[in-house]
TrEMBL record:
The lineage of its organism: Bacteria, Pseudomonadati, Pseudomonadota, Gammaproteobacteria, Legionellales. CDD domains: SIS_PGI_2 (cd05016). It comes from Legionella antarctica. This is Glucose-6-phosphate isomerase. Gene3D superfamilies: Glucose-6-phosphate isomerase like protein, domain 1. It is an enzyme of class 5 (isomerase).
Amino acid sequence: MLYQGTHKIRSNFISIKQNDGEIINKFCKLKMRLLAKGSKISQDNHNNFISGNMPLNHLELDFCSPYSIGALIALYEHKIFTQSVIWGINPCDQPGVANKKQNMNATPI
């Protein structure tokens, strides 16, 4: 979907510096390079073309620990809070949940 789709979708890649030589980080770097730079059209198969120019973020943790995972969660929580301030919405408001609760109490079983 990300490679051959027509929409630009922002992707987040998270890798761990401690595991730099492992195949999972090599795979992560390959995916980031393909999404950012794309690939050429192959003479054999035109379906292999990847346009590139996809927006992406890369976060690299020094090592995987409860502290670094907690910092990562705090980063995403702060992102949501900042977006809610910019957009003028309440990030803790869940009207769908409140609506279901009201309907559950009103509907006899």
